[in-house]
Amino acid sequence: MRFSKLFIVSVLIVSAMGCGGGSSITVPPPPPPVPSSISVTVTFIFGIDTVAVQIGSGAFAAQTLQKNPSGLGQLNLTLPSMTSKYAIAWHCVLGVAPNSFGDFVLEATPADGTQYNLGCSLTQPPPPAIGTFLGSGNVDASAIGAVSFISIYGNQARGGISGASGAFSINLFTGINDVAFVPTSVSDILAVKIVRNQTVPGAINGGNPVVIGSNDMTSTQPLTVGSIPAGFSTSPTVVTFQTANGTAVPLAQATTQYPALPQGAVQSGDRYVFTTQVSNATTKQSLGLAQSSTDGGPVTLSAFPQPWSYSGPAPAAFPTFTFNYSGFTGLPVVTEDTRISTVAVDAGEPVFLSLEVLATGSYQNGANTITIPDLSALPVSTHLAGAPSGTLISWSAFITAGSAPEMQFLPNLGANNTVSTVGNSGAYTVP
Q: Cα(42)–Cα(55) distance, rounded to whole angstroms?
């Protein structure tokens, strides 16, 4: 018995070595551990506190928000490791009107990112909000002349002072901020000076005055919108300067020219973003183009996509939108967005209600429809989904694509990239 056991072992060793000599067995490494969960953190701007979440194809469930260090509502969402998709719904009071309400739904997957901000829009970054930490100091733009106001911008925050000089105190969000000072006349931007990498809370520029002079003045650069399809008319182009640290400086709503920063004020990672739209009043079609540039020189916007023809969803309380369009084939990032709205009457007063749903490409995973969801899990009474028979509904649908998406919850529009949008709109009555 002892001999036979040794014989068996020796045979196994020889077999493992093989006949060719010098060969060996490569043992594959163990597979990486599967995380037990995935964490997604969402920060809500402007005091949003009514939120619901859908995991997979389950029902929406109301959520309790936490407060982040800046006092904003924060959703800490824990997804099971095998979760392929989720949806976040939230409620907003729109604008300054107390009787204007909107619900928003983001349909995404962990591939879209695990940290982002949301506001009362899905296709634009949240507007500048009010932070909870002060950045203070003094600014002097008197050397320029004709200054009536100095706007001050930080990361998702803004403020300003009247006149050409004086002390300022602006509510910024905690952390590192690029702080931009923008003197303006009655209607024109005169200069831009950016103080980089400021720690908030704290004194801006180390407590030293921010002095703005002739070296900070803007120059006028030509802007051309061309190759407009027949039957489409243009709107002013929105021009924004964005720093690598996330500060956005509105520069103009331009038609033929825009103000550019002095070249010395532009650093690596900064870019200009030009956003324009053309529309056809007869067909209710629209085309959008967002283009970024780093050089601050002449700009031409002409790469409009082909129009998308869509007659709208079948009338329903919870309509389904279909997105059939081949113009964006081959582009790596595509999102689909739909919006419905109506005007109701409550206690004799008109009430504007709207609902927007945006699905990322990873969420759709080849699908081409969006159905307006039932948002009864949101504990508010001002809902549009499930409108009663006879309600007149206005609708719009958009497809956006590019190598770097414009939507703020995904990576920002990087340097020298283009994002295109096609859209349709119309109306129907709920049967």
A: 15
Question: What one-letter code names the amino acid at 391?
Answer: T
User: What is residue 88's predicted lDDT score, i.e. its pLDDT?
Assistant: 95
DSSP state of 85: -
Contact residues for 393 (Cβ-Cβ < 8 A; gap 6+): 315, 319, 340, 341, 342, 387, 427, 428, 429, 430
Which helix (DSSP H) or strand (DSSP E) does residue 398 occupy?
A: strand 392-402
Q: What is the pLDDT of residue 107?
A: 95
With H, G, I as helix, E, B as strand and everything else as coil, classify residue 367. coil
The beta strands (E) that lie in 86-174 are given as 86-93, 100-108, 115-118, 133-140, 149-154, 157-162, 165-172
Q: Tell me the per-residue pLDDT of 134-192, one tens digit each, with 9 for 90 and over.
A: 778 899 999 998 999 999 998 767 889 999 999 998 877 777 889 999 999 988 999 99
Segments of the chain with pLDDT less than 50: 1-23, 31-34, 127-130, 410-411
* pLDDT for 118: 85
The pLDDT value given to residue 424: 98
Residues contacting residue 74 through CB under 8 Å, at least 6 positions apart: 41, 42, 43, 44, 65, 66, 67, 68
Tell me the residue type at 398: F
Cβ burial of 149 (10 Å; 0-12, 13-18, 19+) is middle
Residues with Cβ within 8 Å of 219's Cβ and at least 6 positions away in sequence, in order, are: 259, 260, 262
For the CA atoms of 412, 418, 419, 424, the dihedral, rounded to the nearest 10 degrees, stands at 150
Instruction: Return d(Cα 170, Cα 265) in angstroms, integer.
Output: 22
Beta strand 299-301 with 219-225 is parallel
